[in-house]
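FW: tagging you since you asked about this chain on Friday. Here's the raw sequence from the shared folder, copied in full. Didn't touch anything.
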Amino acid sequence: MKKTAARGLFARERVLLQDSDESRELLDKSGFGKKLETGQIQLSLLEALYLIEKERVVVKDGRKTLTYDKFLKAASDIEPKFWVRFAVFRDIRERGYICKTALKFGADFRVYERGVKPGEDHAKWVLYPVHESEHLTWYEFAAKNRVAHSTKKKLVIGIVDDEGDVTYYECKWLRP
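HL: got it, structure written out here
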């Protein structure tokens, strides 16, 4: 039996889901979004596109429903690296992990162990998506590693190729 999709509104950098059984289930059972004081569930653009793809959310912009392609275009106009970030986000969710933004850590994502919900425990990794054609300097790499170390998380770099496949590299400090 197909589930009823939650309904939401496109609000520039986020999507606001109406307070409903479907939206609360996405938050409570699957870790998508965060609850606002209004009762609405706020989704990131990444979460919204993933849920549009899974037919779990219908997003409207005014009166028109945004298809996957139209939503992707709108999100890419707002966020320049959206496709690379989405490829990593989708892959992580498909592997059974919960992935949330990590802006306060100076990272793209924080990733929780399988079965751990945000708020129950801390994230285990900070994750940076990078396209295979991008170049990181040693200074940029060291800064990312320092952020992970100072937040007591492991650093993961997710490298996305042109087909959207992701390869992960976990980096650790070693003491000789």
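FW: The CA atoms of residues 45 and 153 lie 25 Å apart.
HL: agreed, and The mean pLDDT is 92.
FW: great, closing this out.
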